[in-house]
Amino acid sequence: MSEQYDPNIVAFLCNWCSYAGADLAGTSRTHYPANINIIRVMCSGRVNPLFIINALQQGADGVLVSGCHPGDCHYMEGNFYARRRFGLMKELLEYVGVDPKRFNMSWVSASEGSKWKDVVEDVVEKAKEAGPFEQFRRNKINW
Amino acid sequence: MNNKPKIGVYVCHCGINIAKTVDVEAVSEFASRLPNVKVARNYSYMCSDPGQLLIREDIKNEGLNRVVVASCSPRMHEMTFRKTLAETGLNPYYLEMANIREHCSWVHEDREEATEKAKKLVFSAVAKARLLEPLYENEVEVEPATLVIGGGIAGIQAALDIADAGFKVYLVEKTPSVGGRMSQLDKTFPTLDCSACILTPKMVDVASHPNIELLAYSEVEEISGYVGNFEVKVRKKARYVDVNKCTGCGVCSEECRLAGRIPSEFNAGMGNRAAIYLPFPQAVPAKYTIDPERCLMLTRGKCGKGPKCEAACAAGAIDFNQKDEIVECKVGAIIVATGFDVFDAAKKPEYGYNDYDNVITALELERLVSASGPTGGNIVLGKGEDAFVPQEVAFISCVGSRDKSVGNEYCSRVCCMYTAKLAHLVKEKLPEANVRVYYMDVRAFGKGFEEFYDRVRREGVRYIRGNPSEIFKRGDKLVIKAEDTLRSTPIEDEVDLVVLAVGLEPRRDARQIIDLLRLSQSADRFYLEAHPKLAPVNTATDGVFLAGCSQGPKDIPDTVAQAKGAASSALVLLSSGKVKIGAQISFVNEATCRGCGYCVEICPYGAIELVTVNRMGNMVQVARVNEALCKGCGACSAGCLSGSIQQKSFMDRQILPQIAVLGGVK
User: Fold this and answer.
1) Are the Cβ atoms of B663 and A10 closer than 8 angstroms?
2) Is the distance from CB of A36 to CB of A123 less than 8 angstroms?
3) Three-class DSSP category at B413
4) Residue A135 forms contact with B (CB below 8 Å)
5) B residues 53-112 near A, CB within 8 Å?
6) What is the CATH topology of the domain spanning B145-237+324-339+507-578?
7) Which residue in chain B has the smallest CA separation from A79?
8) I need a labelling partner for B127 at 20 to 30 A (CA). Which of A39, A75, B492, B501 fits?
9) Dist. CA B538–CA B569, nearest whole Å
10) Chain B residue with Cα closest to A34
């Protein structure tokens, strides 16, 4: 892997906990790598597995889904669905040859700005270890 | 109307908050070249009046029909800009925000990197904005009633304010009487008002107010519904005493076989009670309660030749067959005022709270100095022949506060002042006693606090700066080992009584309310407010408000102020009578739905049902969303196999372009 490689991470954050936690990281001026790009959804349970595949196809080297701590979901059980769904998803991705380091889940509450920083650093680090992701890219065909 | 997207992008400098790390000129220039973008501007403060005017003018003059604001978090100003759009007649949901402050300029240092990221975030917002659809909010009626959970001073004050405004209040208190922690106090700092004298009139008001239904000795068991329309189930625990017959005479308690043998919760274990008891003389309601965990009749089914309380009760109020009752009510708003627990001093074993009888907590001393306490206000320790009056008294402050080793990093805010107050009371009752306070810092920040602290020192209370490391016994005396950090000298101090100024902690049963109302906790484990500065009484759940120490340690004036704030927030809801509920809910494309019912199973709110419809002559089952019940989590659409059920504003076809942009494959 070259030293130059800068991974691109797409993150799906639930509005109530993780997005607010990331906001708090900002308010507290916590510095973390700029590799992470956040998409806001209302609940981690909203994240369709399709989104993960799509992100990997569209150029992401790593994906993160982050929600409320299990039991604290604003919508009661949305993050339980996410946890189960993406537990399976991770295995499936591994099965089709995607390095499990590329797909991460975390639970970050609205008061855990510093944890968010740790999560981002960890996810970026893992994506760096896994290297650039080309497997799912749609190769342009030159006729 | 031609609905081809014409997008306006507005990049905010936020003073230098964004502009310092993000090249806002470059971002707006980049945005102006994006598909469907008609205008792109940057301005110093988009949320200011001129900033909003800029958007409104462009909507009018340029015919914009979508707006992207790249500024702070949507959690901050989404509502502000939605209103801006609405003022021009544009549907407020044609707004998308790019968070280039909290998620970009504040967290990244490199200007180039931050600018590139800001561009990406703006592009992603534009990609979504193109596909936004107009949404319409539903209005629902608000049930003109409030549930207040917790009958301490916070709950009492909130209940009274709402009831005085003419709305119904259900006040639920877990213990047999309202009054809470404040009723346990003797005097209140810094004015030395008698706590009971200022509290009991309010307790009586709560019980007699025509608009308040007091549910004492009750617990909230279930809460469903949403802002304006909560349905609540309250378990009214059996008192085994008919409250309509009980006159509060107290003969039963005197006769009880266990009289004087059960530690009294109200007296913090310093005094005893019977199995049938009134927690304290001024209890409201003044009705007796049988402790089901102690009463011989209720635990063993047998009490001597027959329960003496039953025989003694002239009113015939004792009823061992009483059952718990479930009370159901509908309310529009909920106020959580569940208070705090004091720190468990046993978690600091070096202070010997478990080992020595004359190491006590401040709450225990509070009961000793109280005229209604077990000693009638005399500071006497021990019993019978061992009873003695302490001469050398030491207070230790910050026990369980500002202490990472026990997981409480925060300051409990009241200990410095209640220590000063108790030191004053000890001096008042025992003028010959030598009183000293071991402290880290003295925080006398409130109105009249510093003056009071000064007064106490002038009265001869010695303040020694240093955190004791150990307390051990030597003969009859306790020895405090500490270092006077101002003089850098070690101290061994022989005393008769050590008072631990224990801090405030979240209630040990705080989890119950979290599970009922989906509240969050802040890092200190108290309930989390919606915004620490601008929405300190709100929670992330609409219609649920916080009051008092459940949100964080507070003194009585702050608690009352916050309770009044929570009451007024609830009243805003109740008096307007209507509330807008989320427009970003799910909907079903009935033409493609195959009626598998997965979404029905997934929905946490039971908001989806299968209905039979006529699809081109065929009767088929399709899912249908109950808009009043849907809270817009979107779980259904992640589970749908055909993508037929979608969450408005978070549809697959709106999120996928965002992913594509952020992924960055050209």
Assistant:
1) yes
2) yes
3) coil
4) no
5) 73-76, 99, 101-104, 106-110
6) FAD/NAD(P)-binding domain (3.50.50)
7) B635
8) A75
9) 8
10) B108
CATH number among 3.40.50.960, 3.20.20.10, 3.40.50.12160, 2.60.40.420, domain B7-129: 3.40.50.960
Report how far Cα B53 is from the mean position of its chain's Cα atoms.
38
pTM of the predicted structure, to 2 decimals: 0.87
Query: Are B145-237+324-339+507-578 and B341-505 the same fold in CATH?
Result: yes
Query: CATH code for A9-142?
Result: 3.40.50
Please give the DSSP secondary-structure letter assigned to residue B105. I
- Distance CA(B524)–CA(B505), nearest Å, equals 9
Nearest by CB: A39 against B74, B637, B655: B655
The alpha-carbon gap from B119 to the nearest alpha carbon of chain A, in Å, equals: 11
* pLDDT per position as a tens digit, B539-556: 988 899 999 999 999 999
Tokens of B322: 């009483």
Average pLDDT over residues B260-288: 94
Selected residues 563-592 of chain B with any CB under 8 Å from a CB in chain A? 584
Can you give the pLDDT at residue B581? Answer: 83
Q: What local confidence, expressed as pLDDT, does residue A139 receive? A: 60
Average pLDDT over residues B295-309: 93
Give the helix ranges, DSSP H, for A1-143: 18-27, 49-57, 78-95, 113-130
Fold type of domain B586-648: Alpha-Beta Plaits (3.30.70)
Chain A partners within 8 Å of B605 (Cβ): 75-76
Q: Is B91 left (phi over 0), alpha (psi -120 to 50) or beta?
A: beta
Report the DSSP beta bridge partners of residue A40: A13
State the count of interchain CB pairs (< 8 A) between A and B: 162
* A1–chain B Cβ distance below 8 A for any pair: no
Domains of chain A, by residue range, sit at 9-142
Q: What is the pLDDT of residues B71-111, one digit of tens each?
A: 999 999 999 999 999 999 999 999 999 999 999 999 999 99
Question: Is B655 at the interface with chain A, CB within 8 A?
Answer: yes
- Mutual angle of helices A49-57 and A78-95, in 10-degree steps: 40
The encoded tokens of residue B74 equal 């949507």
* Mean pLDDT to the nearest integer, B26-32: 97
Residue A119 touches partner B, C-beta closer than 8 Å: no
B341-505 has which fold?
A: FAD/NAD(P)-binding domain (3.50.50)
**Structure tokens that stand for B10 in this block:** 């507005």
Å between B587 CA and nearest CA of chain A: 14
Partners of residue B635 in chain A, C-beta under 8 Å: 43, 45-46, 75, 77-78, 81
Q: Is residue A1 over pLDDT 50?
A: no
Predicted complex ipTM exceeds 0.90: yes
CB atoms within 10 A of CB A31: 12
- Map out the domains of chain B as residue ranges: 7-129, 145-237+324-339+507-578, 251-312, 341-505, 586-648
- Residues B248-259 have pLDDT tens digits of 999 999 999 999
pLDDT of residue B463: 97
The model's pLDDT over B473-528, given as tens digits with 9 standing for 90+, comes to 999 999 999 999 999 999 999 999 999 999 999 999 999 999 899 888 888 999 99
